[in-house]
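Reminder to self: tokens first, then the designed residues, so the page reads top to bottom the way the pipeline ran.
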């Protein structure tokens, strides 16, 4: 890991939890590069996210302008992750899902429900319920609004906001508060 930081200097910033992402890679017009990682991640998700963002940095250094999660990034992400795919670093249940995920990595680890669930087992704060765990027609809170869980479409659940009657889709691993 120190080789990565030595070979690809950047400003690494640990930030408060963001709802929409675990980390990000940013390059500024003055040439500075910054990687941010959320401060609430468990050690496995933290390392995985850090390598994900370093793959962006490496890809930028090599190619400048390519798709953010295109074939060049996927190749670099796999190469950077390989040295960490070891049972002394990640638990077996995470390793199994990670190996499958790395065949064709997605833009977000949460896009892979099985990998996300395997990593979630090691989270400190598990007071939320995942939407796939609650029964259909259940009411739940999300972002200070009340919804009713509907049927699963291909990969997401269609839910109705009670106040506006508008339909929204939720990722199966969306953290919600069930209303009893």
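Designed residues (180 positions):
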């Amino acid at each position: 890991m120190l080789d990565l930081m030595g070979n690809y200097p950047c400003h690494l910033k640990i930030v408060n939890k963001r709802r929409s992402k675990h980390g990000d890679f940013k390059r500024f017009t003055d040439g500075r590069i910054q990687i941010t990682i959320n401060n609430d991640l468990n050690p496995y998700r933290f390392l995985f996210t850090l390598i994900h963002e370093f793959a962006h940095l490496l890809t930028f250094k090599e190619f400048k302008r390519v798709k953010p999660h295109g074939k060049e990034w996927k190749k670099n992400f796999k190469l950077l992750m390989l040295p960490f795919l070891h049972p002394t670093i990640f638990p077996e249940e995470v390793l199994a899902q990670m190996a499958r995920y790395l065949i064709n990595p997605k833009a977000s680890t949460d896009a892979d429900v099985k990998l996300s669930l395997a990593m979630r087992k090691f989270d400190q704060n598990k007071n939320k319920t995942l939407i796939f765990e609650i029964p259909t027609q259940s009411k739940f809170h999300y972002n200070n609004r009340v919804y009713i869980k509907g049927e699963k479409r291909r990969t997401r659940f269609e839910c109705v906001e009670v106040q506006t009657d508008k339909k929204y889709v939720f990722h199966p691993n969306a953290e919600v508060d069930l209303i009893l």
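The chain has two domains: 2-120, 129-178.
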